[in-house]
Amino acid sequence: MEIREQLLIGGAWVDAASGAEFKTCDPATNTVLGVVADAGASDVDAAVAAARQALVDPTWTGLTPAARARLLWRVAELIDDNADQLAELETRDQGQPLSVAKTVSLPMAAEVFRYYAGWCTKIEGKTSAVSIPGILHYTRHEPVGVCALITPWNFPLMIAAWKLAPALACGNTVILKPAEQTPLTTVALARLCVDAGIPAGVVNCLTVGPEAGAALSAHPDVDKVSFTGSTEVGRKIIVAASSNLKRVTLELGGKAPSVIARDADIDAAVTGNLQGALLNSGQVCAAYSRFYVDSSRVHEFTDKIAAAASELPMGPGLSPDTVIGPLVSPEHAEHVDRLVRTGVAEGAQLVVGGKRPHGELATGNFYAPTVFTGVTDDMTIAREEIFGPVLSILTYDDADELAARANDTDYGLAACVWTQDLTTAHTLAAAIRAGSVFVNMLPYLDPAAPWGGFGASGWGREMSSNAIDEFTETKGVWVNLA
What are the beta bridge partners of residue 128? Predict the structure, then answer.
């Protein structure tokens, strides 16, 4: 049965004012999965107006912190109660293996709401030791206001949750805008918010293409934009947001280096890097994508990781054996293939992969895990974010050059170091410019740990107490006691 979804504006589920709709497809087959309302400019205005009204409505502003916490906790419970259905919907709409949806996306979404439920009662100001006699000074942390939460297509439910939960914990109102390729689980999350009892207008949800994101970014009644997506779009959001100097948080692209030191456990490094590179078919902003391997170990590492990559089962996300699911769209599959062809043209040596499958998978957006060796720092595949199952292996002889080479990029989201030497681990962790550095492990995330990057990887941090700072304004209060 085909899915049909509407917009959530001011607590009501409505069609787009124009009646427009668009289709969302299963990337494993490119068949239509559902039809959703296609919001226009008037719908954007209506959603922003509803959020602005809810911002002063006592049914929301009058809630105690403990009551707000209970609402967030209830959303987490509803995510758990509907986990199987949500996981299947995430897999069908985005393509990620069902095992990933069940063990990564759904648990993280629920835990983020629980984590920020705990923060509701802990958003505190402080007294300041001002040097003016007879004056009491203290600070308050107040909601930023109306927040546009614009999410990407690679982990739609999870990333929507880690924006929505802290925004609500701080007392803001929001407009959720999922990527047009993968709208369904975000709409489902908005429905759970309604079911949990969050007052009308506090959470609004618009399904629409990039033009709505641009309209929200420029809207004079939007106070903050939180965006996860490409660096190119992030730059456009900054320009649009400057119209009223709204607050902006950006989590953008990445080109994560993974250093395999001479003393590394190669088998552990192969296993960890394979998973760190190919989770969700490489459609992860923190995916390990350029591997700096000591030249004395490069043949062993290359042979083992290429062999392992070539054996990974590829297929629809709903298949229980699938490790490599489809890419999100035909256009993205073409983008990945174009960069692979560029790598070959620039002289990189293709070891395995580099092609789309034939047979029963040909109708989907599949791409075989691809390993290049002989890659140099100036090659396109070593510099541009591919966002697909492509691994580029580079070599090094002088460990002293590693930090400089790892930092020779516009991005700075994540990095990894594989070594059994504590000095190497801590020295490189300090020297590499990245928001998160992982030592001998996968790029895990946790609600208690900040997430974000340097340079072209974005502005600000999500999750942890950092998100509380991002979704509040600090007000100073001065009282003359003399």
Answer: 137
DSSP code string of 389-428: SEEEEEEES-GGGHHHHHT-SSEESEEEEE-S-HHHHHHH
Contact indicator for 91, 104 with CB cutoff of 8 Å = no
pLDDT per residue as tens digits for the range 194-250: 999 999 999 999 998 888 888 999 999 999 999 999 999 999 999 999 999 999 999
Q: Is residue 143 classed exposed, middle or buried when 0-12, 13-18 and 19+ CB atoms within 10 A define those classes? A: buried
| Segments in 173-255 forming alpha helices (H) | 184-196, 210-218, 231-241
Superfamily the domain 3-252+457-480 falls into: Aldehyde Dehydrogenase; Chain A, domain 1 (3.40.605.10)
Neighbouring residues of 73: CB distance < 8 A, sequence distance ≥ 6: 113, 114, 117
Q: Spell out the domain ranges in the chain.
A: 3-252+457-480, 256-447
Q: Is the pLDDT of residue 433 over 80?
A: yes
Residue among 364, 395, 365 nearest 377 (CA): 395
Query: In whole angstroms, what separates CA 30 from the centre of its chain?
Result: 24
Q: What is the distance between the alpha carbons of residues 451 and 142, in angstroms, rounded to a whole number?
A: 22
Three-class secondary structure of residue 387 per DSSP: coil
Pairwise CA distance, residues 129 & 227, whole Å: 37
Residue 153: which of 16, 275, 280 has the closest Cα? 280
**pLDDT value of position 1:** 54
Q: Which CATH number is correct for 256-447, 3.40.309.10, 1.25.40.10, 3.40.640.10, 3.30.365.10?
A: 3.40.309.10
251 included as an active-site residue: yes
- pTM equals 0.96
Annotated catalytic residue, options 90, 180, 251, 385: 251
